[in-house]
Fold this sequence. Notes:
serine/threonine-protein kinase, disordered C terminus, ATP-binding, kinase, 13-stranded mixed β-sheet, non-specific serine/threonine protein kinase
Amino acid sequence: MGSGLPIFLLITCLQVLVIEAVTDSSDLSALNAVKSNWKNTPPSWIGSDPCGGGWEGIGCTGSRITYIILTGMGLSGTLTGDIGDFPELQTLDLSQNKGLTGILPSTIVNLKKLENLFLVDCSFNGPIPDGIGSLTRLVSLSVASNNFNGPIPPSIGKMSNLSLLDLTDNKLSGTIPVSDGTSPGLDLLLNARHFHLGKNLLTGGIPPNLFSSNMKLLHVLFDSNQLNGSLPSTLELVQTLEVIRLDRNSLTGPILFNFTNLPNLSELYLSNNKFSGSIPDLSGKNLLTYVDMSNNSFDASLIPPWFSSLQSMTSLYLSLSLSLSLSPNTHKAQRQYNNIHTLFFCSLG
Ligand SMILES: *[C@@H]1O[C@H](CO)[C@@H](O)[C@H](O)[C@H]1NC(C)=O
Ligand SMILES: *[C@@H]1O[C@H](CO)[C@@H](O)[C@H](O)[C@H]1NC(C)=O
Ligand SMILES: *[C@@H]1O[C@H](CO)[C@@H](O)[C@H](O)[C@H]1NC(C)=O
Ligand SMILES: *[C@@H]1O[C@H](CO)[C@@H](O)[C@H](O)[C@H]1NC(C)=O
Ligand SMILES: *[C@@H]1O[C@H](CO)[C@@H](O)[C@H](O)[C@H]1NC(C)=O
């Protein structure tokens, strides 16, 4: 009886330790506020301890919420300013929740430790907050397939570690921002691998100073916009390039561009523009697998001499004012271009 009390106390203390919530109380109240604007939150979101209680999609380091990954959960609702109240958050991924609508609150810029922001294939609208560039730790910024409108914030240029910039398939307008001494721009993103700006409403030219030899870009995807002017020859300074998509714009002029300097180029989409002059020389581009230059105004000429030297080509689409049509099934075509599986010469003339 005399020794029973300390043991009882010890057990009680252990129980208190186990029951005590792990989650930092300010993170908990931020998450509860965010949750209150959503429907279809995961069934495991019960109780008041996301970190200790195994809330699906919530990751913690110690007591702090560091990950919110709720991909394809069928969430619906809006984001309120509370989304900015997770000072330790590193990854926010709400992708593939079509029911998430409304604006992206400007408090998102308070997530100073954020490294990954994925809001792909939701229904967000309004502008991308101007100040988003203060998320200087971001490595991935992907907001593809929403209804974002307004300009591409120049401040994105301040995200010096950004690798993936994916703004595809929105309603972004205005020009591609480049730095001008006072304002930042995308030319400052020297660690970027991916510029995905396709399927928007971007206008103006492709700025020559967007590209430099210090860049490490693999993909430049600007297709399906309203870009005009000529293709800046500075693009050839980015020797790491593998995929260039400029199709479905209003680009003009001859392509004064030396593709020889892009050793790893594998896909080149130039179709549905107003390019003129001679067909670009692609001789020796042995890694090229896909080329589409159709629906432009290139000079009519015979089969370019570089043509039969391409070794990896699986698809080549040229559309010239030629009365020439080759079937890929003819013996001659098979023999001569036996690595070219699809070969189209369409006559527009
Ligand atoms: C960029 O990444 C490097 C290496 O991971 C890191 O040391 C640096 O602090 C990062 N820069 C910023 C602004 O977060
Ligand atoms: C490009 O389009 C803009 C309007 O979006 C126009 O002001 C500009 O003159 C055009 N530039 C060229 C080179 O056609
Ligand atoms: C081309 O690709 C190879 C293999 O991935 C790589 O080692 C090389 O650095 C690349 N060249 C350039 C200029 O990026
Ligand atoms: C492209 O560059 C290569 C080597 O850098 C050179 O041999 C070739 O003549 C150039 N072609 C054109 C069209 O400037
Ligand atoms: C050719 O490209 C232009 C844009 O330059 C586009 O408006 C037009 O619809 C395209 N034509 C075809 C047949 O695809």
